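Still learning. Any example?
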Amino acid sequence: MDKPALAALDHLVLTVRDQAATVEFYEDVLGCRAEWFSPADGSRRCALTFGRQKINLHVAGAEFEPRARVAMPGSADLCFLTNTSLDIWQMWLADLGVPIIEGPVARTGATGPLMSIYLRDPDGNLIEISVPSR
């Protein structure tokens, strides 16, 4: 039997303290869109989407099962790819009063070299915004 293979990442989960603050940050700062949905269990859940990507939100203390063994706000480190220049991102973030904690710096991503800037979301998760180097 051949070894099974993974094809793609469907979604990831962020555990957050304040869902409204998280949604506001990811929509207003990063350009994501909040989508509300109701799974078969009848609950109401929120996901952040951009392109074909999805980040499900779980509120700390009210996580959905099954969940990560130690689901904690502020423990994620996410790298987002962009086609917008980092100069424009830096101006955008400055206009919004969002501090850049590092960068631009050269990094290596899944598909090759990147130029990146780093910031934090409301829970302190590390957010990397990267442009592929050409």
About this structure: The longest helix spans residues 86-96. The mean pLDDT is 95. Helices lie at 19-28, 86-96. The beta strands are 12-16, 33-37, 45-50, 53-59, 77-81, 102-109, 112-120, 126-132.
